[in-house]
Amino acid sequence: MPQQVFLRDAMRRLNFTRDALAQRIGVSRRALDSWLLPDESPEMRKMPEIAQRFVLEILKRTSIDTQDVYNHPTGNSESGQHLLSVDGYTRDSVEALLRVADIMQPVARRQKTTRVLEGAVLANLFFEASTRTRLSFSSAFARLGGSVCDTTGFTFSSMAKGESIHDTSRVISGYADAIVVRHPEQGAVAEFARATHVPVINAGDGPGEHPSQALLDLYTIQREFSRLDKLVDGAHIAFVGDLKYGRTVHSLTKLLALHRNLRVTLISPPSLMLPEHLVEYLARNGHHVEQTHDLPGGLKGADVVYATRIQKERFAQQETLEGYSTDFQINQALVNATCGAHTLIMHPLPRDSRPGANDLSVDLNFDSRLAIFKQTDNGIAVRMAIFATLLGVQDQVQHSLREVGWRVPVYLGPEEEVPYRDQ
Ligand code: NCD
To answer: Measured from the CA of 182, which atom of ligand 1 is nearest?
Structure first.
């Protein structure tokens, strides 16, 4: 197992920050950081064997056994082999999946290739607008060596001729080894799953859930927190915007609820508050929840600010944006005035960058606290992990890795040239 995967896994299982682990094994934080850097980084150092033995010893003494969760890495006993919702995940099964995502990192970063899904076919069915979810599921499947066929919108599918979800799903099961579905109606993806034994992944069902997005959001929080020496337990997370219809928020609040002692601030206009059952769920799991319409007040002291787009397309006819004024925008001035030096600014994207939209402002594009492109980059590793585990090849990946044969840029985007990238 690569040392980076081993160390990240150990810290997750022990719930240790980097400082805590470094101290426990008697090395400097700098040394530990250098062991965690990706192989291609010039500052990466090999971890001495004695250090690895020491970490293994600590794991053994805390008698952590996660063996069984690796057998159910989607954590979803109810829906079997599908990924329809984050319900059914335990903290251990989420962490097992994120460990597989760590193994995928060199492939997602284009340092290595793998062909573990050679010959497999993915059907990508998107009945709603999408750029990143559709393309990143395709890209993730292709990077595992599989091929992708897809259809977009109702107009070009037989559903326009009145075909039922059951028939469509059963037909596609004969063509593909996995099916990713996005649909405007809550529950529709589960209906697809009921008609097939081929794994179905929910890529967003109306205002329902978006489990893969929540997994990549949690993965991003964990990785960024690791660099900042923070744990998810005890963190202060502020959700901003359309919490009523934002399905990424619905899934993410449930995954976060698996942690301990969070402070969750829900900031939205009165008409777009988080559904009551989710507020209750957070509270029932011992988290401190506050709901407010005051944006600057709510952002104070947050470790994570998770902004969302107003989902106007889901509004009922008489619904308006009452209370959503122009000063509901997260921009540089507001972040400087209310957030700390290490607050993570997140957004599932797309953000509405048109004038007057009040979404996350583009003036934050080069602020090092902005994590939106880390989220999208991490989406590849996490979606690869989802496919690999659903199709049962997660243990083959490590031994299948080969060097890439083409030229890969050192930085993927202009915002990446900040010194701490990927520590
Ligand atoms: C979101 C979605 O479709 O739910 N986007 C995404 O998948 N990353 C959020 C949105 O559309 O606003």
So the answer is: 3
> What's the distance, CA 375 to chain centroid?
7
Q: Which atom of ligand 1 is nearest to the CA of 311?
A: 12
Q: Can you tell me which residue has the tokens 């202060």?
A: 236
Which tokens in the block code for residue 82? 């599908």
- Before 350, cis peptide (omega within 30)? yes
**Upper half-sphere CA count for residue 209 (Cβ side, 13 Å):** 21
Per-residue confidence (pLDDT) for residue 142, from 0 to 100: 98
**Atom 11 in ligand 1: which residue has the minimum CA distance?**
350
Output the CA 181–ligand 1 centroid distance in Å.
14
For 239, the enclosing helix (H) or strand (E) is strand 236-240
Rounded distance from Cα 350 to ligand 1 centre (Å): 6
CA of 402 to the centre of ligand 1 (A): 33
∠ Cα 138 423 414 (to 5°): 60
If one residue of 202, 248, 309, 380 were mutated to test the ligand 1 pocket, choosing by the most ligand atoms within 8 A of its CB, it would be: 248
* Averages of pLDDT over each 10 residues, the chain, 423 residues: 96 96 97 96 96 95 59 49 95 96 97 98 94 96 97 79 92 97 97 97 97 98 97 98 96 98 96 96 98 96 96 80 70 96 97 87 94 97 98 96 93 77 54
Alpha helices per DSSP H over 258-403: 276-284, 295-299, 332-338, 372-390, 397-400
Provide the pLDDT for residue 313: 85
pLDDT of residue 415: 84
- The pLDDT of residue 260: 97
**Pocket lined around ligand 1, Cβ cut-off 6 Å:** 132-133, 204, 210, 213, 247-248, 309, 311, 348-349
CA of 35 to the centre of ligand 1 (A): 35
Q: Which 3 state secondary structure label does DSSP give 215? A: helix
CA dihedral sign, ordered 379, 385, 388, 389: negative
Helices (H) and strands (E) in the chain, counts: 15, 11
| Structure token digits, residue 360 | 């996350």
The pLDDT assigned to 151 comes to: 86
Residue whose Cα lies nearest atom 8 of ligand 1: it is 348
The answer to whether residues 122 and 386 touch, using CB atoms and an 8 Å cutoff, is: no
In the structure encoding, which two tokens stand for residue 230, read together?
């923070």
Closest ligand 1 atom to 204 CA: 4
pLDDT at residue 78, rounded to an integer: 45
